[in-house]
Amino acid sequence: MDQDRTVTGSANPFPAYLVGLTSWFVPLGVQMVLFPWLVAVVLRMDAFAVGLAQAAVMAPSLLFLPLGGLVADRGNPRRLLLRYHVIYALPPLALAGLLLAGGELSYALLIVYGVTAGAIGAFAIPTRDALLPVVVKSGELPRAVALVTALQFFGQLVGIACASAADWLGAAPLLLLNAGLLLLGCLAVLRLPQPPAHPPSQHPGFWRSIGEGFSAAVKSDQIWPVLLLNFGVGVFYVGPFMAVLPLAVRDNYHGGSLELSYVNLAFWAATIAASMALVGLARRVTLRGRMIGLAVATGAVILTALSTLPSFPVFVALIFVWGIGAGITMTQSRTVVQIVAPATHRARLMALFQLGLSGGGPIGALLTGSICAVWGLRSAMLLPALAMVLLIGFVLVRSRLWTMRTVE
Predict the structure, then answer these.
(1) Are 45 and 217 in contact, with CB atoms under 8 Å apart?
(2) Sequence-separated (6 or more) residues with CB below 8 Å from residue 15
(3) Sequence-separated (6 or more) residues with CB below 8 Å from residue 311
(4) Which DSSP string do the residues of 63-82 spell out, in sequence order?
(5) How far is CA 84 from the centre of its chain?
């Protein structure tokens, strides 16, 4: 399909790509539990403060994901990714050093940590996505996307399992683990082939280049409905997941890091199972838009059920079902964008894809954290579910999402 698939170097660079991916997402999984645990359990901050802290991790995406995509489209993604691994290891090293030296943990310090980590991650994500079509054979992209998505979630799951020991192990060892894995990941990145050189061209200004990415998304009748639903997932699903569920575990179920890990483990285990199932079915699936719509709608049903605050085992079981829908949504949405996006704009379009989750997340975290503080846990889950139903209806009416076919 694209001419950018043929590269020189290792005969099979995809395994090295997967190792580098894992070295990034295991630390991310640790952070997903460790960061809200430090804010909500160790510092005992209120609902609004927890939402603000989670927004601090995700907010840099609003600024830096489009820039990260532009930098990757214009530069050498392999060289950039190597630098991002090194830089991303610095915040956990610094925080671990402070804690080991007897320094005092504060809310302001965690906000700085969250903003820094979020900014670096925003540059790395579209860069890694831009490398994927370079390291897989033509015709294998749908299967590769499903496998990458599953391994990404598996890495997060391993990190979540490690972070479940935070109550008795403390934060410093987990932060050192994160830094060590990120630095080891540099070895995997070094084994990736050099991507094809960009053809000589006149680069327009920054804002015009960013605008070209948005324009390419809007003009594609297959990409824009997927990106819009993805943004809705970020606001109405990721926000409550990051800001409200930790509060439900603490205030309604009186749990700590172990119970918070159960919630995350259930979600990501289901996501991995769904993604792995799609690895084998990748070439058979053509109605990807229909799968995305059904999976996103299932999330609204689950979030409504969660708002009833059932017993903790039922709560975890519902989150498991929610994770299955998330695995389908993530895998099929990424596949659509990777297949349809032109090589010249791929990183920018993948940045927009990630922006829906990471950029919509802070909006949702602040919104649902505020709703929770004013109206309680139930409203903070029910209202986003209702809003998502309205968005799904709009997309189904105004696009051909239900009937579109996407094949490589």
Answers:
(1) no
(2) none
(3) none
(4) HHHHHHHHHHHHS-HHHHHH
(5) 17
Domains recognised in the chain with CATH numbers: 3-192+207-398 (1.20.1250.20)
Sign of CA dihedral 238, 241, 244, 246: negative
> Would you list the DSSP string of 253-268?
S---HHHHHHHHHHHH
State residue 407 phi and psi, 5-degree precision. -130, 150
Region label for 147, one of left (φ > 0), alpha (ψ between -120 and 50) or beta (otherwise): alpha
- Which sign, positive or negative, has the C-alpha torsion 246, 252, 255, 260? negative
Structure token digits, residue 15: 């395994």
What pTM was computed for the model?
0.73
Q: How far is CA 89 from CA 37, 92, 112, 178, in A?
A: 20, 6, 15, 7
Q: Provide the residue type at 365 as one letter.
A: A
What span, in angstroms and rounded, lies between the C-alpha atoms of 129 and 148?
Answer: 10
Residue with tokens 């846990």: 377
Q: Cα 364 to the chain's mean position, in Å?
A: 14
Contacts of 206 (CB under 8 A, 6+ apart): 67, 70
- Tens of pLDDT along the chain (408 residues) come to 444 444 444 468 899 999 999 999 999 999 988 988 888 888 888 777 887 887 788 777 777 888 888 888 778 889 999 999 999 999 999 999 998 988 788 999 999 999 999 889 889 988 998 888 888 876 778 888 888 988 888 888 899 889 888 888 888 999 999 999 999 999 999 999 887 765 555 555 556 666 766 777 667 777 888 889 999 998 999 888 888 888 898 888 888 778 888 898 899 889 888 888 887 665 666 678 888 999 999 999 999 999 999 999 999 999 999 999 999 998 888 888 888 777 667 777 887 887 777 667 778 888 888 898 889 889 999 999 999 999 999 999 988 888 776 655
First to last CA, the chain: 7
